[in-house]
Amino acid sequence: MSHAVTTAPDKPLVVLNQRTIWLIFGALMASMFLSSLDQTIVGTAMPTIVGELNGVEHQGWVITAYILAIAIAMPLYGKFGDLYGRRWPFLVAVALFVVASIGGGMAQTFESLVAWRAVQGLGGGGLMILSQAIIADIIPAADRGKYMGPMGALFGISAVAGPLLGGWLTDGPGWRWTFWINVPIGIAAWFIAYFALKLPSHRTTRPTDWGGILTMALGTTGIVLLTSWESLGNDGYDWSDPMLLGLLVGTAVVVGLFVFIENRVSEPLIPLRLFKNRTFTITTLIGLVLGMGMFSAMAMLPTFLQMSAGAGVTESGLLMLPMMAGVMLTSIASGFAISRTGRYKMYPVAGLVITIAGMIWLTRLEGGMSLWLFGAMIFVLGAGMGLIMQTIVLAVQNSVDPHELGTATSSNNFFREIGAAVGTAAFTTVFTSRLSENLEGVFGGLPEGAAPAGGTSGLTPSIVDQLPEPLRSGVVDAFADSLAPAFWYLVPLVAVGLVLALFLKEIKLSGEAGMVARGEAVVEGKETDILDR
């Protein structure tokens, strides 16, 4: 796909040399790690956090609020980055993340913790989406695999380093440090980005799609509330309940309004014409179903290890290392292979097959199982994910106009995060409803006062460990019997993604970076070439 270069004679061109690229890449990696780490760092700490703050029945919201906020923020950062430039939105995102980390660390109630996690997500969404768009701005698609491979590995590292670090901090200075640790890292990342991200800024007279922004936020929230209905303390889906019915109708109306608005405004937040692009549509749907499966699986595995496998908080983080190894291995290897051969379709296909196999294997989880066997299970899951995540982003960026790199990348990621929010909410609803029933069977026949203080909502790993037999074994089996069957709900979703991947069209990778194609930058040594065009 070729595009006319539009130069901006009133602004100096950014000269892209290897030093500049690596400096920007390093700043992006540091900031992306900060954001992706916080999607998982509370995983190992969560049983302790929700036990102390009396929120066991609603624990999914600690993760769901973060992912929901990321989903809402992504299209905003993508669109505004295309219109105004990506430098200042990126700095705002880092600042938001740091402020929210301070608030989360100081939270005294479960509700305030969830609120600060949502603010963290508003910053984290910008870090994730702008990093991916900036990489596309400075590196041609033909070479991007070598850079996106390490970026995919970074997600894998954070997926496991988060639980590991969260466990170590919970066992040591306390779970609040899972938030406070972000503060010095975030401040350092802000200053690095301020001096390293020398990117062009723009002025535009194009109107802001306020209607699209409002209806997107309301619609996304409504979808997640619907899928989280039971975890919010409601007793099942009683469709005669006027509140539930009103939420369903209201969400449908808002989503309809969003589609109506986006088809009529001149600068839509998420241009629906992108869905006419076959590559965008297929990869977006793959991201949607993968998000539903991937984050759901990762969110609850540390809880299983602590409650059912007898692992300590820190140990449960260490036991997630095989997943990191799987993601790193396949992500880096596939990235270099794509840059060398220019072919990418085979990797998401193979990755989805492997991910399905890993999820089926995880349905065999049981209390007291061999931890070597558990490690093999999650290694397979990680290896599958590493082949998919960055490859589908590369495919999207390679198939769209360079002027819409941010919008297309954020729209693709938006639907993945919607899948993650819905999947995590639905998965934890299934898990917690099963768990409540199972724990009721364990504690139901006990005389008054014999159950743990705070009831089942206050269960923490340390309390479970101190329970006398057979209560302890009953709780362990209750957690295992609640989690393992829930993975069967994810397998059909990922299978849909596999079918879609078979129809992915392979497009020749572009040899021109986004900023060069838009006339905002020139590769060192080619300054005269761009002036002649």
TrEMBL record:
Keywords on record: Cell membrane, Membrane, Transmembrane, Transmembrane helix, Transport
Pfam families the UniProt entry points to: MFS_1
TM annotation in the entry: 21-41, 61-78, 90-108, 114-135, 147-165, 177-197, 209-229, 244-261, 282-305, 317-339, 346-365, 371-396, 417-436, 486-504
Localization per Swiss-Prot or TrEMBL: Cell membrane
Protein's membrane topology: Multi-pass membrane protein
Gene3D superfamilies documented for this protein: MFS general substrate transporter like domains (1.20.1250.20), Multidrug resistance protein D (1.20.1720.10)
The UniProt record lists the keyword Membrane: yes
Domain Major facilitator superfamily (MFS) profile: 24-509
Name recorded for this polypeptide: MDR family MFS transporter
Organism expressing this protein natively: Promicromonospora vindobonensis
